[in-house]
Amino acid sequence: MKLRSKIYLLSIAIPLLISCVAVVTGGLAINGILHRLNRNLLSREIVFVSANIENEYQILVDAAVETFPHYVSMAQNTIMDKMKEGEFPVSGTVFVFKLDGAAKSRKCLRFRNATY
User: Is-contact 107 97, C-beta < 8 A?
Assistant: First the structure.
């Protein structure tokens, strides 16, 4: 192989190798950034929904009706209606669990955002 051919192949191989390294590094960096952003978004959604649930419960406590199942159901329905109307920024599926200790009293409400 002539020297000119080796120089030509080397002049193509080095930029190609640098380009591949840059693409892989950029892809990994973007993937890390997206992962952090999604984690932060999810934690903010959880905090927001949790704060609204606690606010509804505090309203029940202030009115001294937190032990009446009818009022608790109304508060749960209010929260679910707010999620369905888009008042809460929920971007996926939300599971709300009610655990009272006994296996018979455990409930799970599932809400899936209809925007996607």
Answer: yes
Q: Cβ-count burial of 80 within 10 angstroms (0-12 exposed, 13-18 middle, 19+ buried)?
A: middle
Domain ranges of the chain: 3-112
d(CA 24, CA 114): 35
- How far apart, in whole angstroms, are the C-alpha atoms of residue 44 and residue 40? 6
User: What count of other Cβ atoms lies within 10 Å of the Cβ of residue 63?
Assistant: 10
Diameter over CA atoms, the chain: 92
User: Contact at 8 Å (CB) between 90 and 45?
Assistant: yes
- Which among 52, 90, 56 has a CA at the least distance from the CA of 73? 56
User: 35-52, pLDDT tens digit by residue?
Assistant: 998 888 877 777 777 787
pTM > 0.70? no
Q: List pLDDT tens digits, range 77-88.
A: 887 777 766 666
